[in-house]
């Protein structure tokens, strides 16, 4: 990571809008708790953070984004915003999972994050950098490594993303560990009239 990297990172995979502005060795974080409405809140929040530092979007070297796991719709909001900004600004976008931030913050080779229905998602970080993801049932059997605040996670996400700027990384994509909870529509498909 260049010493003067300027990067904005954000994540909406949980019940909040979290963002970090990395300015060289300084990180400014903001976490706005919210159960819904992240899609409408995200861009104005990021704009306010940039304006408060006298920056514009063009002043950034890149964009970091949380890829999950987490809320299905929330992940799509962040990843879509990051990919759109990257395309429009001609800047790189880098995806970072909550597993990666948790591993960096905890220093553990195996991390666990809470999942719906009293399950947990585990990821092992092996010597070949091949992650293994598997859902586990029963929270009592898992020592969670997510005891870090959303501000700590988003700050760590910004640092990881900045370290990847200029590397050969794919475009950010959502990390879904399981299928969405949404049920198929019960209504009949619409009829198209001639």
From TrEMBL:
Family annotation (SUPFAM superfamilies): Actin-like ATPase domain
GO cellular component: cytosol
Domain Gcp-like: 36-101
InterPro entries attached to this UniProt entry: ATPase_NBD, Gcp-like_dom, T6A_TsaB
Highest taxon listed in the record's lineage: Bacteria
GO biological process, one term: tRNA threonylcarbamoyladenosine modification
NCBIfam families the UniProt entry points to: T6A_YeaZ (TIGR03725)
Name assigned to this protein: tRNA threonylcarbamoyladenosine biosynthesis protein TsaB
Source organism of this protein record: Yoonia vestfoldensis
Organism phylogeny: Bacteria, Pseudomonadati, Pseudomonadota, Alphaproteobacteria, Rhodobacterales
